[in-house]
Design goal:
Layout: E1 2-5, H1 9-21, E2 26-29, H2 40-45, E3 53-56, E4 59-62, H3 64-75, H4 84-117, H5 125-146, H6 159-164, H7 171-174, H8 182-192, H9 195-198
Parallel strand pairs: 1-2
Antiparallel strand pairs: 1-3, 3-4
Helix pairs in contact: 1-3, 4-5, 5-8
Family: Belongs to the GST superfamily.
GO molecular function: transferase activity
InterPro entries: Glutathione-S-Trfase_C-like, Glutathione-S-Trfase_C_sf, Glutathione_S-Trfase, Glutathione_S-Trfase_N, GST_C, Thioredoxin-like_sf
């Protein structure tokens, strides 16, 4: 299998899952600053010209959630559980995260991490103010859900945890007020105990 990635937000969760599972992957780094994700050859694999993309024989997958589920299923692990009820709950968290939590925390990541890295100008204070308000609202929902729970879905780690937490390693850089949400902070501290989560990206 080949995994095309860059050391940015969405590939982080996929690389973490792949490392945790010790998946037999050849990592192919794309330099976004040089436009390596925009080449005709790469667009044949991923017409969105984004990362990550997984190639497994004739199968080509893009979108980080789908790739995480595929790797977990292929490895036969409980990260993608076998019971339908938990699978449906994971899909629920995928949807909520995409529409709400990572939508706003990712906006702050873009303003404070991506813009300086790729020389895209100063942070837009209006966008920051709106994203912070949304972050606090949605982080409160997540915090309440995590009270008395170790993981998002059931009693064991799942791909839902990797998806929803993907912006949290950048909390300081992205100025996410995690200290206001103790159960979110506790949950993320648990993920940080995993080497694969703390250091997901291979050397390139």
């Amino acid at each position: 299998m080949q995994l095309y990635y860059a050391d940015v937000l969405k590939p982080r969760s996929v690389c973490a899952v792949a490392r945790l599972l010790e998946s037999p992957i050849e990592y192919v780094y794309l330099d976004l600053g040089k436009g390596e994700h925009l080449t005709p050859d790469y667009r044949k694999l991923n017409p969105n010209a984004k990362v990550p993309t997984l190639v497994d024989g004739e199968r080509v997958l893009w979108e980080s959630n789908a790739i995480m589920c595929y790797l977990a299923d292929k490895a036969g692990t409980s990260l993608w559980p076998r019971d339908t009820a938990r699978q449906i709950d994971i899909v629920r968290w995928f949807g909520w995260n995409a529409e709400h939590f990572t939508a706003c925390s990712g906006a702050l990541y873009f303003e404070y991490v991506i813009k300086p890295r790729f020389s895209l100008g100063e942070a837009d204070e209006t966008a920051v103010e709106s994203a912070l308000a949304d972050f606090r609202r949605h982080a409160a929902v997540l915090d309440a859900h995590l009270q008395g729970r170790t993981y998002l879905v059931g009693e064991t780690l799942s791909v839902a945890d990797f998806a929803v937490a993907v912006t949290l390693p950048y909390a300081d850089q992205a100025r996410l007020p995690l200290e206001e949400f103790p159960d979110v902070q506790r949950w993320h501290d648990q993920l940080n105990a995993l080497d694969a989560w703390r250091s997901p990206f291979p050397a390139h």
